[in-house]
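User: I'm designing a mutation panel for DEAD/DEAH box helicase and want to avoid disrupting the core. Could you give me a predicted structure to guide residue selection? Please restate the sequence first so the numbering is unambiguous.

Assistant: Good idea. Sequence first, for numbering, then the predicted structure tokens:
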Amino acid sequence: MNIKMTTKIITEKCGSVSFKRGEAYFKKNAVEITENHDAACKAIVKSSEDFHVTISRTSSGEIHTACTCPKLSSFTLECQHVAAVLIALKERQSGEDNLSEGFLTLFENKKKSSGHKRHFETRNVMDVEFTLKPFRTTEGQYLFSIKLMINRRPVSDIRSFLKRVRDGQTYQVSRDFMYDPHVYCFSRETNDVITQLIRVVHDEKVYREEHSQEQELKELLLIPPTSWQYLQPLLQGSEDVIINDAGQLFNGLAISENLLPLQFTFDDDEGNYYLKVRGLQWMVVFLSYSAVFCEGEIYPLPLEDCTRLAEIKVMLERSGASKIRIPPSRIGYFLEKVAVDLKKLGIVEISGSLRKKYMTTPLVAKLYLDRVKNRLLAGLEFQYENIVINPLEAKAVPTGHMLVRDTEKEKEILSLMEDSSFAKTEGGYILHNEELEYEFLYYMVPKLKKLAGIYATTAVRNRLAPRKTAPKIRVKVKRDRMNWLEFKFDMDGIPEREVHELLSALQEQRKYYRLQSGSLLSLETKEIQEIQRFLRNSQADHIDFAKGLALPMDQCLDLLDHIDSSEVFRIEKSFRELLASLRQPGSLSFEIPDNLAAILRDYQKEGYRWMKTLAHYGFGGILADDMGLGKTIQSIAFIQSILPAIREHDSPALIVCPSSLTYNWLAEFRKFTPSIHAVVLDGNKKQRQALQKDFRDTDVIIISYPLLRRDIQWFEKQAFSVVFFDEAQNFKNPVTQTARSAKKIDAAHRFALSGTPIENSIEELWSIYHVVFPQLFQGLKDYSQLTRKTIARRIEPFMLRRVKEDVLAELPAKMESRESIELLPEQKKLYAAYLAKLKHDTLKHLDKDTLRKNKIKILAGITRLRQICCHPSLFVEGYKGDSAKLQQLLSILEDSKESGRRVLIFSQFTRMLDLIGRELAGSGVPFFYLDGNTPSQERIQLCSRYNDGERDVFLISLKAGGTGLNLHSADTVILYDTWWNPAVEEQAADRAHRMGQKNTVQVIKLVARGTIEEKMNELQEKKRHMVEELIDSQEKKETALTEEDIKEILNI
């Protein structure tokens, strides 16, 4: 409800008494808000009966309330139930405000004040040590206390320190060390413990209030029982824990599931019987924790056993004795009852002389089962060696022995028989009820098998249908529809009429079904439950299921989670072939387009076939190949393969990508498939609308994510043959406009391209599949309940991921790519103005003579244009704007860091390298720097340190570092600006691509789109010696730079 509520307003409206009672209702979670809109709210307050409260706000802002409770007419203020609802609304608003503040705080440009070290942080991780020590309370109970050491200095006031950490404040640990959250932080494991200890401070305060005699020690924090269960697993996972037990130190907190190192020895001494206890004196019993500490290990115990052990320890300590006398008259009770319970605590030894006198042989129980005249008969025997006891007969035990019976086990067996509703007869049991008989055979017999031997006749063994007769579901691909599956219920040896009856029993949710043979088929087995789950998910009619059920394949995707391990589904050949084709795309025959067959590498052909296979069955998927493996060319191959259908149906392909990649895609289409008419949809709104009106002859439309969002009303009305979402992590958040817009695209086939489909959480993967293949998973809530193993198994056929190492044998030693980058608006203005001035001033009369005279001026002007492309501040005084190329470089470096790649960055301009260096330093990225002023010796040292892995980024001047450097440990080379001579760029790349290199070298050229850099790249292909002729005019050749060449460079 959109109304600001405060404690003062509620108190004025309801009074202090109603407010306090309403607050009590709220704290007991007795308020349930059923409806909540801007102008009204409805709620139920649960008490001895439910009271319904309505709160509304008029257009003038007045609040009206109503409650179904019998409020006194003389009471003018609102009742306690209205107060409770108003308090709930206030708390909800407070939570929303906290959420908003917390969310916005995430984006504040300030350092984290506490917590563990995050990526790219420069804070120092502190050395923290936790010391646990048993602490005996005034009541005689033991608790653990804990104290801290920070950087080998004891924390004198642990509560004050934890409060300061919580609040992000400094704390003076010692004279020479102050904890400052802006300078120091904890390791991740330590931070988890510290966070829990902050909560322990409150729990300890409550504990001390309940036990007022406990004295507070500043350096020690008591761990109450309510806190131990949460703190123990965190301490167990920490390597910085020490346990101090009476001065004896133990490293780490170890939890043992073994029997306690405790020994009970029962012996006679000239007619006197004693129980000796060894090992108890070394143990500390933490009754509050239900655990025992001994020799550096903690032994969890049931509370009853822990209580007994604590009392035994107290008895022995108070008496000063080391053994306990057992009266002769109580020996039988001791052996039958006490010794059995002592075995749960430690090893129990009974001396040989007592073993001879008392018969302590183990119990062998036997249960005999038979069926006679539709009745189940049972007989039970307890056997101790040659003594057989019928528990239902009151016969005396044969004399000559003092028999020690296992009364605990006997009681357990008799209790199970009692729970089975048998009627007792003379010496046996009888059961005459089919449902009770089923429950006994299905539920009780497995339990009894653990305690007794079961001897059943054939009639009893056949009463439950064996598991091998369990029903199955046959799965095959529907013959006339390749993307549909057909399911049919099947059970060996069962006629079709009985199958219908069995399915009816399933629909009625019966526990079992009686077959015509008389056997009872359990409908509660894991296999039957799997069939039930399938029928629920498919929403199929049980009766139709007997005849055969056809479902679209995309509705049956959860079968992939367990189809291989399932004992229910019988996979027929057609479905097995389908699964094989999904997991091994090469198994289906899809022709490679002729114009690309010689270009595509083997792994790229496999990726193409994988996409064709998914499209064949109507599925979508994610091509998640590593950067540089050719996701673009594989996608182009797919579009080429469906080009006839695109043109026949006037249904173009759609490429959606980041703004910086739109023209990269266009260039790739023109390079590899010039016959495909591809168009980039950009420009202002009027220009885009013009292109949208006339796209009928267009084969491929390329659009950026921002423009897709703006023009989604047009795009959602179009029908596309296929859509490729490049860099699909752009919509990893499903609530963004980008994700919603992508979801609205109507395309026959949908694919995502992303080298990093998961960056922070597995929910990002759901978001991408929600766009390209929504049938794969249900809602995000259901998805979050799936295990990672289940998610991995389900996506396996629908994600293709290859990293460079996987296909290294096929890759060339060096892979080159070009990143085309759109200048920022302020850069474009500067560039256009300077280009116009350069043309006007120097190119009025361009011929061979003026070229020779103006060579230096022309080169200087072109250099200025190139500097604007790099960063205008290289020569424009006071430029405060940014650089598109620098932004792209930093993005590439971030991706490279995540991929573990090592980078060389080359630029002709040392001032540009300085700018890059400042950005890296500000982000906490260490780097090496080398230019023409670096001494020769230092160059060698820098290269050696880089090859040793000291830092992952090296900034190098193109001319100074182009030769003489061996940087074989790098695997990525970035050419920040284009150089006239392509040979210089090749030499730069060869700093990494040389002997000793073990990885594929990725060479990335950054080129400003629509500028002199783009023209230079084109002319590099046409005239590789063009710039040499301009710079060195002493060699006069026919390939000298012509008037037309310079005009082409500058006429952009």
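For picking mutation sites, this is relevant: The longest helix spans residues 80-105. The chain has a mean pLDDT of 83.
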